[in-house]
Amino acid sequence: MREPKSILITGASSGIGAALAQEYAAPGVHLWLGGRDLQRLEDIESACRAEGANAEPHVADVLDREALADWIGLADDAAPLDLVIANAGVSAGTGHGGESADQARRIFAINVDGVVNTVQPALEIMLRRPNANPRGQIALMSSLAAFRGFGGAPAYCASKTAVKSYAEALRTAHARDGIEVSAICPGFVRTPMTDVNPYPMPLRVDAPRAARTIRRGLAKNRGRIAFPWPLYATVWLLGTLPPGLSDAMIGRLPAKG
User: Fold this and answer.
1) CA distance 185 to 168
2) What's the confidence (pLDDT) of residue 5?
3) Measured at the alpha carbon of residue 56, what is the angle toward residues 50 and 58, in degrees to the nearest 5?
4) Kind and range of the H or E element at 12?
5) DSSP 75-113
6) Claim: this prediction has a pTM higher than 0.85
7) Beta-bridge partners for 137
8) Domains plus CATH for the chain?
9) Weakest-pLDDT range from 9-13, 15-19, 95-99
């Protein structure tokens, strides 16, 4: 696919979303940046404009389905969207007290419903375009945690599994429509989300490096962008093992705070 010139990113105020915005920032690029923190969005906007991009911050709640669809539609009207990255998400763990129902529901709502609320309007817009190859590209932020449930973060793992499967199914469903869909499955990335983890995080990478990896994968229209590969291979293998073998190993892992 050609380099995208109009890109919409949810969860762009920090972490991987902010790093992706700055990775794509360049003259002639229009960035639509959604997030919950206007001040941080404006900081990212300034950094992107310094690189020559036209950046537009927008306070967006991915759970507000109608408002989110309106924003995506307005962005596409102004500059037809080449790439939509459904990045917004949250993480939480059990500590040592188990996962509450409210916490689990909040994680599923943001990580799954929020992704659907982003993807569906973008998909409908792209499907209305004249037949072309590609009509557009959509990326969904999953995680290496999607490959096997870990007791320290049940709802997070399950929500990211849903996102990965959703992306893979959409890719198959819309391949003939000229719409490219990718599941992004990072391991540990140095962000405010992971900075609070009280345990070792093997092969953790900086957010700018993760953004470069994601950009390369999207440019090649990879269906699954999973990294770093040693950790990817490990969780993939754990996911293939019978629970009788993998439960004992996973049960020794520390709880997420």
Assistant:
1) 12
2) 98
3) 135
4) none
5) HHHHS--SEEEE--------TTS---HHHHHHHHIIIII
6) yes
7) 83, 180
8) 6-250 (3.40.50.720)
9) 95-99
